[in-house]
Amino acid sequence: MITFSIRHSVTAHFCAILLAFGLILVGCTPVPIEQSSELPPTDEIETPQTTEEPLQEAIPIETPEIILPEPELEPIPPELEERPVTTFGLQNEEQVISLDDPWKLVEQANSLPAERALGLQIRAIEEFLNLNQVEFAITTLRSLAMYPETIDDRFHVEILRGRILLAQGNTKSALAKLTQINLEPISNQSLRIRYFETLANAYAADGKNLDEIAIIIEIHDLSDDEARIDWQKQIIEKILNLNPLDRSLLAHQSMHANTSGWISLAETLDYDRPEFLSTDFLDWRKFYPDHPANLDSLTLSQEPYELTKYQRIALLLPLTSDVGSAAQAFYDGFMDAASRYQSNSQADIVLYDIGNSTGLSRIYYRAAIDDGANLIVGPLGSEAANSLLEGFTGEIDTLMVTDISDQTNLPRLFAFSLSPEEEAKLVAKKAWNDGHRQVTVFRSANSWGNRVASAFVEYWESIGGVVVKNEFFQTDQVDYSTTIQNFLGIDTSIQRRKSLEKILDQRLKFAPRRNEDMDFIFLAANSTLARIVVPQLRFFQAHNLPVYATSYVYSGTPNPELDADLNGVIFPDMHWMLQGVETYRRLRTEQDLAEISVEKEVSEEEFIADLSEGESDQSELDQQPKIGQEENPEQDTQPLLEDLANSDTPDPSPDLVGTQSVETEEENTDQVNTLANNLAPYRNTGLDRIYALGLQSFLLAPRLNALRNDPTLQFSGPAMTVSLAENGEVLRQPLWLVFREGLPDRIHKLTK
Questions:
Q1: C-alpha to C-alpha distance for 264 and 287, rounded to whole angstroms
Q2: Which candidate, 409, 334, 318, places its Cα nearest to that of 655?
Q3: Distance CA 121, CA 549 (A)
Q4: 376 pairs with which residues across the strands?
Q5: 576: closest CA among 665, 666, 694, 673?
Q6: What letter would DSSP give residue 729?
Q7: What is the DSSP string of 12-78?
Q8: CA–CA distance, 469 with 453 (Å, rounded to integer)
Q9: How are beta strands 715-716 and 397-401 bridged, if at all?
Q10: Which of 69, 295, 447, 487 lies at a C-alpha separation of 20 to 30 Å from 22?
Q11: 680, exposed or middle or buried, with CB in 10 Å at 0-12, 13-18, 19+?
Q12: Looking at the whole model, is its pTM more than 0.70?
């Protein structure tokens, strides 16, 4: 009882104090202010049903006191409780209001002068919309304490009107209002971002995906580095959701300079293989060095296996040898990868030039080990590799740049090459999967052609295929009509006609027919010979036979004028080479457009000059030379890189696997090289594959042991996708290409 009496007395005393304080507050009530009649228009907004009449004219009123019932909302998560707050002083007291609580903001605004209440009311409207409380947002908007005086406040209110219309489903009205807003006087970066966010949402609601993406790109550029990561994800995701036609329209219609780069990046990144995003991104970066994209947070994904760390890497390469140019290309690729892709813990890379002395490879190998190397890459070529294999001990991991036999299975030994024999087996497997069963093999009469054809035939017959014919053609002639007629069986058809004419003693109408037993042709030839042979094959009725070849059918240099005769030829290659072709297409298109623009300007000037002289006869305009009509002289071809095994033939070297003869056309190559100036150092040249092999070797090295332990794993680098056989041989997963309009292109669907 004593305790109760004390509490009762204290309570009564406290109530008396509160009553006195309340009377003081009443005396401090602010002087009534006039409500401006110039409130922003609200005609477009659907006003919720209410008995209150909207203000029509300015009349002296008291500051409106908005009483909004607080709906039942889910409790705020603990991590969101600490929000920005605002503190307002009132005499000697302070009130702390959370800025994301719109009801508290409105309540506080009711007790403040109009110039101070406006900011709270605008913030309350924004928070109501964030909570999807549209009716409360409209009520608060219509009851603004005063007309916004600053440009930023008026701009903010217009954005909120657009958001309200959008929340009500009035997408067209929202777009109409938002697109009429003038952004020029607005310097507030945050407000500009809010405007673009609202506009992007409006375009999305209206189904205008291209406009939405264009606006999101603008938002990305206005955002800080942290916020840009999320916007970049959205840009790429939305571009990937577009069909190819819409992507082209976006690139053509967008006024933003970075749009084409975003489209290219979206098409480059393979999100099905997140562990390879980093290499894909860095390869894309070479073509768009100034693009604002920075996808480090996306590309730094953890691979599903442990990488081997090497402190010292030794390269055994024959730089000062007959194959020095190829060795140099491999070295450049390896070192470029080291500088572009290596992490902070960089390995020391030491070069050992073994020259022409392939038999000394074991001595250089031992020297590298004694110098502390824990990974050796090389030697390059079969002779040096065979010399090393004779005494191979497997002390450290070794990646030979050559092919090894299936029977070779040594610990810590790996082999990586561009072997044409292995490619021939891949071609045979591809043709079988395409439904072909009977083949005719047409090979160049040299050691390379014989090896490639033998590898193809051996594998083809092992899987059940039938070889109808296996013929060779000489490499030192141009007219193969007699050889091809014999190869296709046309000579037999001609002989049959002659026999019938002799028996019947009269001339017969006759169309020679080729052998119908063959499904397709496997051509074992390089690009120079293929350009001569393929048109003649088609002339002699083989036009409806698919032609398969190895990657050697493509010189590595885009030349649609000379390679047009190879249209339809199917071959495997690394996706590195296709990237070069795609870049060539883009640069060639830009160059053509520039030439057309110049030609148009010249034509207009000449036309005006003719008019001024009274000579406007249209026939004279028709006689003006047009782009593409100049006659191209016949091109001469010569090897850039002579055959490394036998310089008398255009045959690739058996010792340097993956190096092949390369043709250069004196009048066409200059233009190609000009277009490729800003690309990788060997891009669009015959040594580009060797460069890519070096680049891929550096990236593959720390993954060798993991891939060998699990044959199901694959690694997709910037050059190609590979896996490992049990004996340590690197198996390439090629990209299948076909010549279209004289340039390599992807095969989408193969038909007979």
A1: 10
A2: 318
A3: 73
A4: 314, 398
A5: 694
A6: B
A7: HHHHHHHHHHHHHHHHTPPPP-BPPS-PPP-TTS-PPP-SSPPP-S--B-PPP----PPPP-PPPPG
A8: 11
A9: unpaired
A10: 69
A11: buried
A12: no
- Contact (CB, 8 A) for 534 and 565: yes
C-alpha to C-alpha distance for 492 and 513, rounded to whole angstroms: 9
CB contact burial 707-717 (16+ within 10 A = b; e otherwise): bbeeeebbbbb
Report the C-alpha gap between 329 and 662 in whole angstroms. 14
The residue with tokens 């207009």 is 604
> To 10 degrees, the CA torsion angle through 238, 239, 240, 244?
140
Who's near 170: CB < 8 A, 6+ residues apart? 44, 46
First to last CA, the chain: 104
What distance in Å separates the CA atoms of residue 717 and residue 705, rounded to the nearest whole number?
Answer: 16
Residue 84, token pair as written in the block: 């920005």
Residue 604 identity: E
Taking phi over 0 as left and psi of -120 to 50 as alpha, with beta for the rest, 524 belongs to beta
Tokens of 287: 């073509």
CB 547 within 8 A of CB 425: no
CA atoms lying within 13 Å on the CB side of residue 593: 6
- 229-232 CB contacts, 8 Å cutoff, 24+ apart: 229/297, 229/298, 232/293, 232/294, 232/295, 232/298
DSSP string, 602-671: HHHHHHHHHHHTT---HHHHHTS--TT-SPPPPPPEEESS--SS-TTS-PPPSSSTT----EEETTTHHH
Instruction: Encode pLDDT of 144-198 as tens digits.
Output: 867 787 888 888 898 999 999 989 989 999 999 899 888 888 888 888 999 999 9
- Side chain identity at 150, as an amino acid letter? T
Burial tier of 160 (Cβ tally within 10 Å: 0-12, 13-18, 19+): buried
Q: Which tokens in the block code for residue 126?
A: 């924004």
pLDDT at 718 (0 to 100): 79
pLDDT tens-place string over residues 351-366 = 999 998 888 899 999 9
Report whether 384 contacts 702 (CB < 8 A): no
Which residues neighbour 410 within 8 Å (Cβ) at sequence distance 6 or greater? 389, 392, 394, 728
- The identity of residue 586, as a single letter, is R
Helix-then-strand count for the chain, H and E: 27, 19
